[in-house]
Write a structure and sequence with these properties.
nine-stranded parallel β-sheet; binds guanine; alpha/beta; binds zinc ion; TIM Barrel; 431 residues; single chain
């Protein structure tokens, strides 16, 4: 057994319904076989287990591993294409790069970069938009299994209005998706998700095929995009002649408790009501929404309707893998909404980046916080001595203030070590 000693912060109870930040300045976590057996003041845990090995994580902060609920595997190399709205960015930046994943050896390299990007940012669990090519999705699951992170992903499918290399047919989408799901769903920490790219690029027959796959994969997930950009929404409205965007998915019974829809920057009240009724989740992607000028996410309205919200990096429209950055940008955007915005405190940001994502992914009994009975999926934020974050943490007025400083100043460079199930999946030498 191992005792991890450090300042541990987490949010087992939802701060959006009054839950506090749980913070212990000198905590001990007793871990056996990847599970947290005991948690308490370090001195007490130590006195009960004087012979066990101690890993000293004092200085900095120990946080749950982040849960990224929306991130694109084939877009690592497309990060940073600024200056365009969604549809132009897709055409000029994202889709040409995604087409390159048709080359399996290229996909293997990108899979390594992608999984490395997640772990180096402290992300231990992710819902990942895969590629349009089955061998590339294989490469992603293979790399995720090799490194050990928790990935839910699948084949991305489309059958219109994208460049030709990225298009499939309903029959082929069904066959390839099912084959991938049979190979990877429930294997290690991998799970399968059915992923029509967005209604703009998916006709009804393809969405029907997506539903058919979901019926075959017990415990499978559904993810897609929704209501991101006004031109996209207008195009979807022309293509479908339904009352709103959500209905394009809902009419095929794709919206339920295991569904996560990304963005929803411009929802109608009817859509928010239906999302809440179905128990579906929304992945809020703040840097992407800012970079593409998509709009300011109406968090208050989501909460008023009881729609579950978590955080996504949306790499590569999003500007990096760090959910610290996403949390900070979420905070900025709510501030910019003035009285319509939600006053996000540090505990809300941590919750959105951890527990909320675990709940959205049906994993909250295993990960998302560092309580007894949970898996030890954790990260140690340990900034370089005398860096601005180091100075800020050492001078913080308390744990909540320290967390605010971590969101304000923290980057992947500050993530020293990351564990999944008690195994190190990333560690960097101190500078
Ligand atoms: N909508 C359809 N595809 C994409 C994508 O790759 N990124 C974003 N942000 N929105 C999308
Ligand atoms: Zn996306």
């Amino acid at each position: 057994m191992t005792i991890y000693r450090g300042t541990v912060l987490d949010t087992p109870e939802d701060p959006f319904t009054g839950g506090p930040l749980r913070a212990e300045a000198d905590a001990g976590l007793l871990v056996r076989d990847g599970a947290i057996l005991e948690r308490g003041a370090y001195a007490e845990v130590r006195s009960r287990h004087p012979g066990e090995q101690v890993v000293d994580l004092s200085g900095g902060l120990v946080l749950p591993g982040f849960v990224d609920t929306h991130v694109h595997f084939p877009q690592v190399r497309a990060i940073g294409g600024l200056g365009m709205p969604l549809l132009d960015w897709l055409e000029r930046c994202a889709l040409p790069e995604e087409a390159r994943l048709g080359d399996p050896s290229y996909a293997v390299s990108v899979a390594e970069e992608f999984v490395g990007g997640l772990t180096q940012a402290g992300t231990t669990t992710a819902l990942v938009f895969g590629a349009h090519f089955a061998p590339a999705v294989d490469a992603l699951f293979t790399e995720a299994a090799r490194v050990g992170i928790r990935v839910t992903s699948g084949l991305v499918v489309s059958d219109r209005l994208l460049r030709d290399e990225l298009l499939t047919t309903p029959e082929r989408a069904y066959d390839e998706s099912l084959a991938l799901a049979r190979r990877w769903h429930g294997v290690g920490r991998n799970r399968y998700a059915v992923i029509p790219r967005f209604s703009l690029s998916c006709g009804d027959d393809l969405l029907k095929a997506c539903r058919a796959v979901l019926e075959e994969v017990e415990g499978g997930y559904f993810t897609s995009h929704i209501n991101e950009n006004v031109r996209e929404i207008a195009t979807v409205a022309r293509l479908f002649e339904l009352s709103h965007y959500l209905e394009t998915y809902d009419q095929h019974h794709l919206v339920g408790p295991r569904s996560i829809l990304a963005h929803n920057v411009h929802p109608t009240d009817a859509e928010l009501r239906t999302l809440a009724e179905r128990g579906a989740s929304v992945a809020h992607c703040p840097t992407s929404n800012s970079a593409l000028g998509s709009g300011l996410f109406p968090l208050t309205r989501h909460l008023a309707y009881g729609v579950h919200v978590a955080l996504g990096s949306d790499v590569g429209a999003g500007t990096g893998f760090s959910l610290l950055k996403e949390g900070l940008q979420a905070y900025f955007m709510q501030q910019l909404l003035s009285e319509q915005g939600y006053q996000l405190a540090p505990a809300h940001l941590l919750h959105l980046a951890t527990t909320a994502g675990a709940t959205a992914l049906g994993l909250s009994s295993e990960v998302g916080d560092l309580g007894v009975g949970k898996r030890f999926d954790a990260q140690w934020l340990r900034p370089r001595p005398s860096s601005t974050l180091d100075v800020a943490l050492r001078n913080a007025s308390g744990n909540e203030d320290a967390l605010a400083k971590a969101f304000a100043l923290g980057t992947p460079a500050d993530v020293r070590t990351v564990w999944v199930d008690g195994d190190e999946v990333w560690s960097q030498e101190p500078a």
